[in-house]
Amino acid sequence: MINHKKIVVVLPAYNAAKTLKKTLDAIPRDVVDDIILVDDASSDDTVAVAQKLGLRVFVHPKNRGYGGNQKTCYREALKLGADVAVMVHPDFQYNPVFIPQLVAPIANGECDAVIGSRMRFPMDALKGGMPYWKFVANIFLTAVENLILGNHLSEYHTGFRAYDRRVMQLPLDLDSDDFVFDTEIIVQMKLAGAKICEVPITTRYFPEASMIGFLRSTQYGFAILAVLGRYMLFRLGLKHYEQFSKVQKFS
């Protein structure tokens, strides 16, 4: 807990049995009040390992995708009374040691969301093992997103994020169940007038860490451009999209 705010870690899990304990051991328990794991129909022993470790576990009977997993994560975090939820991938690619830096600005009322950026110091991402093609694509897509959304972020594509409860109450169920969910929620935050902060983080790429391949990443890139296209049409009043029109401004 920070500043009397309840901090809940959410773990969107898929085949994370080998790395889950390592991730859990690195979570700073002096800051975190509760931990939720949502299993997206894993084919390994993720659920059994999570239950053995004493986690709150929610299981999707069918695979819903990365975005669908997050929707359940935030819904259950709100039910627990979370003031701040921080998403940690249980594949141990992102280091949970940075959790206090992610949640503190929200708990202290400085911003509504914090992104753990691998690209604040770009060379560190390459040193951590980020493939060069992914590195270049990250820079290109981030530049396009900043141009269209009017933001000044160093990265949009990290999976290490913290959200205020108001962000979790956005119309997330109208967003994609796929990886592009991470971009759609940023667009919704833009429409809501949310303040987004960044903190630099390190990351690591290793065989057990999940990473989508080149073809899947290419599809992801085009999906991001499609979201930005919808956003521009919506802002120009040329098209109606419920996922945007239902967003209410933060007071």
Give me the CATH fold name: Spore Coat Polysaccharide Biosynthesis Protein SpsA, Chain A
Task: Provide the CATH architecture.
Answer: Alpha-Beta Complex
Structural class: alpha/beta
Largest sheet: 7 strands, mixed
- Number of DSSP helices? 10
Low-confidence stretches: none
Gyration radius, to the nearest Å? 17 Å
The proportion of strand residues reads: 5-15%
What do you see in this structure?
This protein is of the alpha/beta class and 251 residues long. It has a single domain, classed as Spore Coat Polysaccharide Biosynthesis Protein SpsA, Chain A (Alpha-Beta Complex). The chain is built from 10 helices and 7 strands. A 7-stranded mixed β-sheet has the order 3-2-1-4-6-5-7, sandwiched between helices. Helix 6 runs parallel beside helix 9 (214-235). It is globular. The protein starts with 6 loop residues before the first strand and ends in a 6-residue tail after the last helix. The model has no long low-confidence stretch (mean pLDDT 93).
What is the gist of this entry?
With about 250 residues, the protein is an alpha/beta fold. About 40% of the residues lie in helices and about 15% in strands. It has helices spanning about 20-25, 45-50, 65-80, 100-105, 120-125, 130-150, 165-170, 180-190, 215-235, 240-245; strands at about 5-15, 35-40, 55-60, 85, 115, 160-165, 195-200.
